[in-house]
Amino acid sequence: xxxxxxxxxPVIQSRMENFRKVRTSEEESPLPFPDLPPDVVxxxxxxxxxxxxxxxxxxxQMELKGSRQIxxxxxxxxxxxxxxxxxxxxxxxxxxxxxTKVHYKxxxxxxxxxxxxxxxxxxxxxxxxxxxxxxxxxxxxxLDPNQTGYQPPEPCHGLGTQxxxxxxxxxxxxxxGLKRPLPPPREELLTKKLQxxxxxxxxxxxxxxxxxxxxx
Length: 216
Description:
Radius of gyration: 27 Å
Oligomer: single chain
Structural class: alpha+beta
Largest sheet: 6 strands, mixed
């Protein structure tokens, strides 16, 4: 039995080499945010989408057309690009409330046999994939802070915001370094070294799903 299964693998691989993906579609699902206005803008980010094109359209909706809310959504390999678009908009506009929802979405892929049997019908392979998906709501108006995934607007601190846009971290190490007290004089350090004691025992440090359905 093991020999039979081992011999079947190369046959399956050779057959799959003849297939080419011809179409990908997403399952339609409602946005996971209640009480959205019917005309809310949804930016569907794809793997091949250009961030500049997405942001030009999204910024026009928020600034020129006066939209109060906008949704960015993406799945699979587009999740990272979706988050990037959100961070750019938050930095440019400021004062935006955010709610993030993460779930799984089903992608439908259709593969076509490029080397069918002579005189036989066209052979297609349908694959269902469960991939991670993200939906992010940005709102000028306040949102319920008790709902899961809520993030309040980020504070603006003038110079600190400008440095943050340049890609520098101004919220942790640099601020802490400015508040660090000056070291004591040399004589005081020597006294402390003589009075050092062995400390107690150190503290403990705490702290896709994929489904394939083949249809011929």
